[in-house]
Amino acid sequence: MFLRFNILLFLGLANAFIFPLFIQPKHTVLNLSKYPKRQNSVYPLSKVYHDQYMRRLHSGNFTSFNKRNPIIKKIKRDREFKRNYYEREEADDDDQDEYEMDDEEMDMFQKLLNQDGENNTMPLGGFRIVIRPGMQPVDDDGVERDIWGRPIRSTLPPRSNPSNPDKKSENFEVITKSPFNFSNVGGYDNIKQELDQCVDLLSNYTKYAAYNVRIPKGLIFEGPPGNGKTMLAKALAGEAKVGFITVSGSQFQDKYVGVGSGRVRELFELAQKNIPCIIFIDEIDAIGRKRSGDGETAGSERDNTLNELLIALDGFKNTSGIFVIGATNRADLLDDALLRPGRIDKRIYIGNPDAKTRRAILNIHSTGKPYDNSVVIDELVETTNGLSGAQLENLLNEAMLNALRQDRTKFTDVDIDLVMNKMMVGWQPNEHQFTSDIIDHIAIHELGHAVVGLLSKHHSKMQKVVINLSAPKSPAYTIFESSASTILTREALSEHLMILLSGRIAEEVVYGVSVTTGAINDFEEALKLAQRMICYYGMGKQPIYPSMSEKYKEEIDTEVSTLINDAYAYGEFLIRNSKELLIEGAEVLKKQKVMKAEELIEIMNKKYNSIFNLKI
After folding, report:
1. 446 given a catalytic annotation
2. Which of 25, 182, 195, 526 sits at 20 to 30 Å (Cα–Cα) from 548?
3. pLDDT tens-digit profile of 504-532?
4. Three-state helix/strand/coil letters over 502-537
């Protein structure tokens, strides 16, 4: 027992006094008294090292130790490695200019070294520098580095661009050179003419002050998507050669209260530093929506942001030289205070392009895309009636990609038709699986629409019939030209009603009672059209039905049924007198999958010329 106690006592004393002598140190001590004195004692190591050390010293990132501190006994590890490191650094700095330090400066420097932890520090022979393992040297470029010189992070604040100090804020940036001008925008000549004065306002906005006119402060581009609202704004900035700031309405929405109004102020302050300047707010309805009165927090914050925008547009501050352009698909959602003159002075509706604009857009986007003689731009202009500018660009782009996918260097009208079909009805990788009998019914059904549409005088022109088994919904369809007019006559609506019913009529004439369910969508649309004609368009026996009483409901139902029955009778008359044409045309359609109006007319001229004389 006594022997065990002596062993434990010996191990305890050894652990307290002997083992610490052999523990590897965690710090590096560089005692300069052990090394030969340099020729110049002002900088014991070098001027560069002295500057680096002073920066570390003032940052508080150092530690001094006492000889009698037991931690001193633990700092022997890696001494040789780090001593060699500082000796190499000292050798690299031998070419630094040095000067003599007097006794007063030397004493001051020694006090600075010992000021950390005065209770644990005592004077030593010479002076020493103690570096903690986590302490990184700081180079002259303000970059923290490890002991091997690898950069860790910069200690300097972010540097702004001194040449353009006012071109960028925290959330917005001024574009000084717009790559677009009006020549990059195809068509829309009337809109460009309207914007020419806006260009003059931005370029010579001081000229108008002599004429006692109020300079417009903004405009709204409204209309369906894909028609160049953003491109026209960029072209306006490029034409006027002024700064351009583009933002989205959603950038002003944030979960924190007050952020939206702060960003509005930031936006206009940046624009004020760069006048003349254009601010383009895309999807302005996100910020300019009509103010709510329900008191909700989100609505209140949006209202505050809108109020800040209203003040920025027409407040006490002078905003001359700043022109605001907003773009939206839903102008009906905008607040009336935003649209009033003095804030937004112009509203320009940009609809789907007309024939002239479509031709210009197709010419621009067909540049660099080779196509063969089967593609005729003038015919393509007619075929693409109703498409937006973005859809026209996508049409040519996808046609070229489809040709390249098949290792062809030119796209053809087949590529155009394929892409058009995908754009109108969609595409699925797996085709519908139908029996030959169902395919026959489908062909007869579509030829019924096509023949009656071709014989209609007031309806838009029939273009082609397509059997497309890759379409997700309808395996076949008949394409008509889009009407440029939004006002339709009674005759045009009646013929459209007849065309909708003629598909089922053709099936009944050819197959009797063996009809399909393919007319379901036609019937739904025909019923809605007949109800609109009676209830909304005033094309019944009475122009207006004052109430929805049971009496008037019965009268409305009776007139709707009369319209549908009359259209069905006229369509049946045309189909029965064209039965042979339907059967022959259906065979061609099943074989080619596509039949254009010109092919159907050619068959009629050769064999069934009498059909053109049918009158309804």
Report:
1. yes
2. 526
3. 999 999 998 888 988 899 999 999 999 99
4. HHHHHHHHHHCCCCCCCCHHHHHHHHHHHHHHHHCC
